[in-house]
Amino acid sequence: MSAHLSPAPFARTIVHGAPHLVVALRVAWRRFRRAYAVALRDEVSRRNLRRLDDRMLADIGISRAQAQFEADRRPWGHIG
Q1: Per-residue model confidence as pLDDT tens digits over 22-58
Q2: Angle, alpha carbons 68-72-46 (nearest 5°)
Q3: Cα gap 16→10, rounded to integer Å
């Protein structure tokens, strides 16, 4: 039964005569992975920014309000 659920035969049928489709899918997948990695990195940075006290924020030259604004941004706020 699991052989019927495998996408491999279907995938081979789709890409058999269309190697450009395979390349396009690989490029799209790489772009997605890169964007996802950036979003995760930004989310960790924002979480860490939220934890800084006022003295530490002053050391890096930003106010509590600026830090809060940045920390509240959504992960997709960087995309563009």
Answers
A1: 889 999 999 999 999 998 999 999 999 999 999 999 9
A2: 80
A3: 10
pLDDT tens-digit series, residues 17-30: 677 888 899 999 99
Q: For residue 39, count other CB atoms closer than 10 A to its CB.
A: 16
DSSP E strands in the chain: the ranges are none
Q: Which residues contact 43 (CB under 8 A, 6 or more apart)?
A: 75
**From the CA atom positions of the chain, what is the Rg in Å?**
21
Amino acid at the residue 12: R
Is the alpha carbon torsion for 19, 21, 27, 32 positive or negative?
A: negative
